[in-house]
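INTERNAL AUDIT FORM
Audit reference: QA-55
Scope: verify that the stored structure record matches its stored sequence.
Auditor: D.O.
Record contents follow.
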Amino acid sequence: MTLSRVLHRHGTPSTIYEAESSPSARTQGGLLDIRDYNGQPALETAGLTEEFRKLILEGRQAMRLLDRDRNVLLDVPDDGTGGNPEVQRGELRQMLLDSLPAGTVRWNHKVSDVRTLDDGRHEVTFANGSTATTSLLVGADGAWSRVRPLLSGATPEYTGISFIETHLFTGSVAGTSTPG
């Protein structure tokens, strides 16, 4: 969405094809770190720095790691620099959606196939039966991307490593587990 916003700001229309049926089809949970050396410059180029700053969760750059006996192994306070601020994924997504011209995102367009045409363009086929032909194709659809094989023969593989993160909120415990 950030790339689409930058293209639109420079007079180049773009279309985003999204597999989800609508912006509210699923909750966009979790936090994202938007770093000062990659994500923040992209948002600046997109003209969204002011809107982004309103989403930052203050104090979330702090980090404390404990061992199983609750001994502190690492205690890094939030330094206040804003170099690695966290934002709610859903709020960032909504900010980006709101920044795009109406109709830029085409919902309910899950990519089922991509093929290169003779003239260097690409034809994208969607699960709903429709197709699109484009001169520039950007794949941003995760590990099992239909676009990835056009660039690399590498196949994603589950390594058996999982990441577990726990947060303490006002006396309650919430945890998440994400396969890595």
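Auditor finding: record pair retrieved intact. The longest helix spans residues 89-99.
Action required: none
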